Amino acid sequence: MRKLLTTLWLNPRWQLAGIGLAGLALVGGGVVLAQTLNLAACQLCILQRMLYLLLGIEALLLLLAARRHRLLALLMAVTAATGVFIAGYQTWLQRFPQGISCGGGGQAWWEQFVDWAGKQVPLLFEASGLCSEAGWVFLGLSIAEWSLLFFSAMLLLALRALRMSGPRRR
Fold it and tell me: Which of 61-65, 110-114, 137-141 has the lowest mean pLDDT?
């Protein structure tokens, strides 16, 4: 068992698949949490949920593709870095609320996109909460702060897989 785990850890393809699986699990956990605790997701929460789903799709593409591991690792790193930025921004909004809306005024294109997606698949994408409200807290961290930690870990793993899948040096 230990040898199997070591092999999986050293294989960049399986690291990236693990990122995607974790992203899908986080989406599922977020939906269950929202339904059971009656939590209202905000637009930034929904964007993060979309990024976790995108990581899952990218991981599926990785498993289906015989090649292009490096390109998909780079794509997953960019997706995770975007998640770090969004979760970091939401964490900042929650820590220093100053009457700012999610987008900072007006309705940005991404807010319109989240609204449209919420009309298409309300269970996954309906946004009705405020970005500056922490809502549920676990071990002293809000959901946005947990998301920031998860996206940061995913970014580091994707960068590690990218580095490992590069050309071998002699």
Answer: 110-114
- As a whole number, mean pLDDT of residues 99-114 equals 62
Residue 140 amino acid letter: G
For the segment 51-80, the average pLDDT, to the nearest whole number, is: 81
Q: Is 72 helix (H, G, I), strand (E, B) or coil?
A: helix
User: What's the one-letter identity of residue 73?
Assistant: A
% helix, strand, coil for the chain, step of 5 = 70, 0, 25
CA distance 100 to 93: 8
Fold of the domain built from segment(s) 13-164 = Bromodomain-like (1.20.1550)
- Whether residue 9 contacts residue 15, with contact meaning beta carbons closer than 8 Å, is answered with yes
69 residue type, one letter: H
Tokens of 49: 């949920």
Which DSSP state fits 40? Answer: P
Q: At 48, which amino acid appears?
A: Q
Q: Is 105 helix (H, G, I), strand (E, B) or coil?
A: coil
